[in-house]
Amino acid sequence: MPVYEYECSKCEKVFEVQQRIADDPIKTCPDCQGEVKKLVSMSSFQLKGGGWYADGYASATANSSKATEKAPAACDTGGGCKGCPAAAASS
């Protein structure tokens, strides 16, 4: 069951509550009955073991870097496509 963090706007207490995803969010502080808001906290989920990458896109990154190596260099003339040999070849 997930653990959610709440903060009271009246007493400023931060507390955790174990709730099902389907449960309605808590609306009042258990101590002072003030209004609470749900906080966004860091997840403790972590992938470990062989075959997992930190970014999840190891093969996509390798493929995009290969594509970048084959891409034509930026135009140095600064005049747009008017004098570009690649533009003349495609028209």
| Radius of gyration from CA coordinates | 27 Å
- The separation of the N and C termini measures 62 Å
Low-confidence stretches: none
Q: Which H/E pattern describes the elements?
A: EEEHH
How would you describe the shape?
elongated
Percent of residues in β-strands: 15-25%
Number of helices: 2
Taking the sheet with the most strands, its summary is: 3 strands, antiparallel
Tell me, rounded to a whole number, the average pLDDT: 74
- Strands, total number: 3
Strand order of the largest sheet: 2-1-3
Descriptive overview:
With 91 residues, the chain is α+β, with helices and mostly antiparallel strands. The chain is built from 2 helices and 3 strands; from the N terminus they run E-E-E-H-H. The chain is elongated. The model has no long low-confidence stretch (mean pLDDT 74).
In short:
This protein has 2 helices and 3 strands; from the N terminus they run βββαα. With 91 residues, the protein is of the alpha+beta class.
Features:
91 residues, alpha+beta, 2 helices, three-stranded antiparallel β-sheet
Chain-wise SSE layout:
Blueprint: E1 3-8, E2 14-18, E3 36-39, H1 58-70, H2 85-90
Antiparallel strand pairs: 1-2, 1-3
